[in-house]
Inverse folding.
């Protein structure tokens, strides 16, 4: 049984939940394969799992909505996983409102060099205002 709190989960899911709880879902654009996430309970007592899809957004479109909110500057933190990253561009595009330099944190490098390069390419593309900073 889990007796140590909401963060006692294996691997990446615990990290995702910790980031969403710490910064708040209103600041974190999550683009993953998850349909639910851990957030503080509305009454301030503990945590609850809730749908990632906001009212009026289908779960099928939640990653696209999150990407748009990040690129518009409505959310300043973007978290992507391999499951949610297909075709996603998160670079400081000259045509987007959010043109801040990207800080791309890589908590774990993949086993495939081509997948790692593809991951770096999410924040480093043509038509960018400035290149990202990478933290390994």
């Amino acid at each position: 049984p889990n007796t140590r709190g909401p963060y006692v989960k294996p691997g990446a899911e615990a990290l995702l939940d910790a980031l969403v709880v710490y910064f708040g879902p209103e600041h974190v654009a999550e683009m993953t394969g998850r349909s639910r996430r851990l957030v503080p309970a509305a009454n301030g007592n503990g945590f609850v799992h809730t749908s990632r899809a906001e009212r009026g957004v289908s779960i099928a479109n939640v990653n696209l909505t999150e990407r748009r909110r990040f690129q518009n500057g409505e959310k300043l933190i973007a978290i992507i996983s391999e499951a949610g990253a297909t075709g996603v561009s998160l670079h400081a595009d000259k045509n987007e409102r959010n043109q801040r330099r990207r800080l791309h944190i890589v908590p774990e490098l993949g086993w495939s060099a081509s997948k790692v390069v593809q991951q770096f390419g999410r924040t480093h593309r043509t038509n960018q205002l400035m290149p990202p900073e990478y933290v390994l």
Remarks:
- Strands lie at 28-31, 36-40, 47-51, 77-80, 103-105, 133-135.
- The two ends are 34 Å apart (CA to CA).
- The chain has a mean pLDDT of 88.
- DSSP finds three helices and six strands in the chain.
